[in-house]
Design brief:
The chain is α/β, with parallel strands linked by helices and 283 residues long. It has helices at residues 2-12, 32-40, 61-67, 81-88, 93-106, 127-133, 153-159, 163-171, 238-242, 248-256, 278-281, and strands spanning 18-21, 47-52, 71-75, 112-118, 139-145, 177-179, 189-192, 199-203, 218-219, 224-226, 235-236. The chain starts with a helix and ends with a helix.
Amino acid sequence: DEEIAEVVRTMAGMGLERVRITGGEPLIRRDLSDLVKMIADVPEIEDLSLSTNAVLLADQAEALKQAGVQRLNISLDSLQADRVDAISRRPGSYSKIMEGLDAAEEVGFAPLKINVVLIRGQNDDEIEDFARITRERPWHIRFIELMPTGANLDLSANSFVSCADALRRVRKIEQLEPVDGPFGNGPATYYRFPGAPGTVGVITPMSHNYCDRCNRMRLTASGQLRPCLFGDIETNLRDPLRAGQDLRPLIEETLRIKPERHYLIQGSAAGSGGLVALSQTGG
């Protein structure tokens, strides 16, 4: 925890203002609240969010809120219990996720963003169902195009659904109006049904990438700093940190070599030969 917090403190002194804790699944970390508090205590950090599958969220939502998490991103690829349980390979996962979402709302997490990766033949028949939720609950449903990363490489070739197709289907329900997104300033474009408390968002890393607006870097669980989520370019911060070295020159150089764009469509990552799994890097 202290090593992660030290990297955050160093980068905060260089202009870092926002941190998102991802995984894998961060809620399996026993000392997660301690790590959250360390990061939240860094004066320069203005926004601290967390991405989770929400299976363990019901029991941790209040502690995370008190420790300093301000926003949650929830990964949920289906509204059908049997599908969710099959994806997670754990019976009862869907009910636990719903309990987690309710708990998050009860302790005051807002906005609550729900990320839905579109996969043809697996959940594309639920696009309208997800969109309709935004008319009832103040959720921000975000459809995300499937990306060819790691284990998804073969799957994505046959299973891609564009967000443009999703929006065409959603617009058949009722007129959508463009709106500003909830706090977070991320890559999504948002729309709203008239009078709806929630929004429908789209994230298009494949059909319309947002690389020219990307200001993010990823710190992996092994202490590598990656300037692009979809690349294998990385800088080892763990060993220099443990040796007591100044990390700032390494961070500055990593930022300097940040690729102008990813190359997922061409079948490689950020101009390199490897495709990483999001579970390894943090999505």
